[in-house]
């Protein structure tokens, strides 16, 4: 087939293209993934009894804002990276800002804490299982996002996979807040970040393998 | 001085191609055809400058990039600079091609001269070595038949649906998935 013939074939019956199809697909993917994520959380770990009591503490809301900000920044990055040639500058800031803010809170918290209490703030009661639980809860959103991204045209596959993983990690962490009793910024700044980075690393590995087009 | 002239030339080209693409995305097939033709000429010149040691690759890669641009056209944001979008796609496919054939030494020049992409046109097509018409024949019937009816014989989606006894949405999906499958076949067989 000559190039002219190919062009004629591509143009023939090409029809109009709706705006924002890819973005809509990501929203649908996340909306479909969240209920199974909550079910998984309930089945594996369960909503904790003190959830409503904690809701009066400002740190409870700071924790929620933190994981939502990570998921949101990851979501924006996924959309941006799915579009060839889109600029990324401000996204880097959006991606690191929630983590930096949590670290700042952690430093204030640790400076104020009594000498002997600092390790307890960082380790909490659940440091050992927390990152893995967040990673497990990120699986539904991760699969859904990778599915949605197959309709995109990412040209930086490793980065696209990593941000999809980070966004899924944020979604998993959001579901995990219904179970997790930890409210220390030092704990969140270490173990939550680690938990959300696990799917990001897996995504960086998977990206070049599953997102090629 | 020469750079400024080149830059000026390519920015009016960018505007022209951009408005043709905008019309095309809104459903104007003639404008879309003109967009692909203009893009093809510029991409050919761009690739010829970069693959001077393997001119026989140019036409195949050009066809692959045109197919990619068509398949991913929904990813173009109308406020985005067209050259940046096209350049990212062309570079992605060029690198993919070089990696696939592990002939990185073919590359003569930097890949990062974004403004250069639309700077000159080349209407002299060479022979493609890979025949997309033959590759089309290897698609499954539910994709191949809609493509033949709609894209090659020029039937409307409704006519093709009637002729093939498929629903209209199945025809559209068949065309869309078929062209994506064609791109995947190019990628995997090259």
User: What number of domains of chain A?
Assistant: 1
- Measured as a percent range, the helix fraction of chain A is over 70%
**How many DSSP H or I helices of chain A?**
10
- Classification by helices and strands of chain A: mainly alpha
Report the C-alpha radius of gyration of chain B, rounded: 18 Å
Low-confidence parts of chain B, pLDDT < 50 over ≥5 residues? 1-9
Task: Report on the architecture of this protein.
The complex is a heterodimer of chains A (213) and B (190). Helices cover 73% and strands 0% of the residues of chain A. Chain A is mainly alpha-helical. Chain A has one domain (21-210). Chain A is elongated, with a radius of gyration of 20 Å. Chain A has helices at residues 3-11, 21-44, 51-54, 58-81, 89-112, 118-123, 130-137, 139-149, 157-176, 185-210. Chain A is built from ten helices and no strands. Chain B is mainly alpha-helical. Chain B folds into two domains: 1-129, no CATH class; 130-190, Arc Repressor Mutant, subunit A (Orthogonal Bundle). Helices cover 66% and strands 0% of the residues of chain B. Chain B is globular, with a radius of gyration of 18 Å. The chains are: A mainly alpha (213), B mainly alpha (190). The A-B interface holds A 1-19, 21-22, 82-86, 151-153, 155, 212-213 and B 24-27, 29, 32-33, 36-37, 40, 44, 59, 62-63, 66-68, 70-78, 80-81, 84-89, 91-92, 96, 125, 128, 131-133, 147, 150-152, 154-157, 175, 179-180, 183-184, 187.
